[in-house]
Amino acid sequence: MASFTAIYDACVLHPAPLRDLLLRVALTDLFRARWTEQIHAEWIRSVLDRRPDLTTEQLARTRALMDASVPDCLVTGYEGLVDQLKLPDPHDRHVLAAAIRCQAGVIVTYNLSDFPSEVLDPYGIAAQHPDEFVAHLFDLSAGAVCAAVRDQRLALTRPARSVRELLDTFLSLGLARTVTALETMQDLL
Predict the structure, then answer these.
(1) Confidence of residue 13 (pLDDT cuts 50, 70, 90)
(2) Is the pLDDT at 1 greater than 70, yes or no?
C-alpha cells in the first residue's frame, strides 16, 4: 500500500460521479484515501438536502460500501486537535485535524479558500481541487487512472454511458484538466 495519504472533504463525496471516481482511484494503491465519520455525516446531509428522493438508509448503504472497499479509510482520534486549529470556516477544522492525525499530504476539496496554505503548510499538508488531484494521479500512472475510469463507465448501466458522456460529466464537475488528459487515452476508457 502507498504511503502518501489524502483526506477527502465532504464536498467531493456528494456528487456521485466524483465520489465514484475518487473511490475507484483509491483502489489503485497510488495513495491511501481517508475520511471520518463526521465527513460521512456531512456529505450524507448534503445529499439528502439536495435529493429528497433518496433515503438515509440508501446513503447508509453507500457509506458502508465505501468503508468496506477502501482499507483503513476511517480516521479516528483527531477530535482533540479540532479546538486548537484556526481556519476561515471553523466547521472545517475537523477535516484538517483528521489530516494532521493521519499524516495526510493533501486534502481533496472544492473549497480551497477554506484551507489556506499559510495554515496547512506547517503541517506539510496541501489543499487540492479534485481536478488537480486526479490529474496528478494520471501523471503518476495513466494506466491505473484509465482503468479506474473504464471500470466506472462499465459499471454505469442505468443508463449506460459512452466515454464522451462520462467525460462530459467530469467536465460538469470541474475536472477539465483530468478530462484533457483522459481524452488522450479514450481507447482505454
Answers:
(1) very high
(2) no
Contact 114, 92 (CB under 8 A): yes
**Angstrom distance (rounded) from CA 136 to CA 147:** 15
Residues spanned by CATH 3.40.50 within the chain? Answer: 5-129
Burial 110-149 (b: 16+ CB within 10 A, else e): bbeebbeeebbeeeebbbbbbbbbbbbbbeeeeebbbbbb
At the top level of CATH, which class does the domain 5-129 belong to? Answer: alpha beta
Instruction: Look up the pTM and report it.
Output: 0.96
8 A C-beta contact, residue 87 and residue 115: yes
The CA-based dihedral angle spanning residues 61, 63, 65, 69, taken in that order and rounded to the nearest 10 degrees: 180
